[in-house]
Amino acid sequence: MGQEGSPRSTGQEMRRQQVLAAAMHLGAEGGYDAVQMRGVADRSGVALGTIYRYFSSKDDLLIAGLAGWIRRTRMRLEEEEVRCNSPHERLSVVLAGVARSTEASPMLMQALVRAHGSTSPASGPHKLDVETEQQALMVTAIGDSYPNVQEIARVLGHVWQSASTRWVTGLAPNGSLGTEFCNAIDLLVPATTVG
Fold first, then answer.
1. Interatomic CA distance for residues 104 and 36, integer angstroms
2. Domain limits for position 80
3. Partner of 44 at 20 to 30 A CA spacing, among 13, 22, 73, 152?
4. Is residue 5 included in any domain, yes or no?
């Protein structure tokens, strides 16, 4: 397994980011099968042995890429300060953007979802990163003072995983991810309270 728990130098982090970017580009161009460790090495300019120090497999690499994609989405949300009147509206805007981004990159999302389905124990830490980043994105969108926000965020993460899997495997049509998000938001973070 890689050096995920250890501090990295600036150079190491830069190489790691080059590797992740190369894997994401290859996934976007040709899906899961297009991401080969040798191709990632060639595309990133990072030695194959170095890549294996960071990531034990392409699944490990792609799952780390997914966590990074979600993290960047959350960071943009924090920087942009989306102006909305309610947690429901803000979450709806954010997840509509996630749905659009996802459906705009079908080959990449197919690669990421397939990798995320890996049963390799070595991928566990990166899967936890994905879950943590999804939850942080939801909490940021809803607001950390909203009642039961952690539980809501966790359930929305499950909806995200399930709806993404259904979409990339062809069980659900384009637009379905946004629909699933809207349904879950309406149930979990109502626009108005009934009282």
1. 23
2. 10-188
3. 73
4. no
Q: Give 70-81 pLDDT, tens digit per residue.
A: 999 888 888 877
Whether residue 84 has pLDDT greater than 90:
no
Span 162-174, pLDDT tens digits? 999 999 999 999 9
Q: What is the CATH number of the domain that holds 28?
A: 1.10.357.10
Closest alpha carbon to 63 in 128, 13, 153, 136: 128
Are the beta carbons of 18 and 44 closer than 8 angstroms?
yes
pLDDT, position 7: 54
Which of 154, 8, 3, 134 minimizes the C-alpha distance to 68?
Answer: 134
| Sign of the alpha-carbon dihedral angle for 76, 73, 188, 174 | positive
- Residue 83 pLDDT greater than 80, yes or no: no
169 falls within a domain: yes
C-alpha triplet 74, 21, 167: angle, nearest 5°: 65
40 contacts 19 by C-beta, under 8 angstroms: yes
Place of tokens 């705009």: 104
Q: What is the pLDDT of residues 1-43, one digit of tens each?
A: 444 445 568 888 999 999 999 999 999 999 999 999 999 999 9
Taking the CA atoms of 140, 145, 146 and 151 in sequence, report the sign of the dihedral they define: positive
In contact, 128 and 44? CB cutoff 8 Å: no
The tally of domains found in the chain comes to 1
Please name which of 26, 184, 54 lies closest in space to residue 112, comparing C-alpha atoms: 26
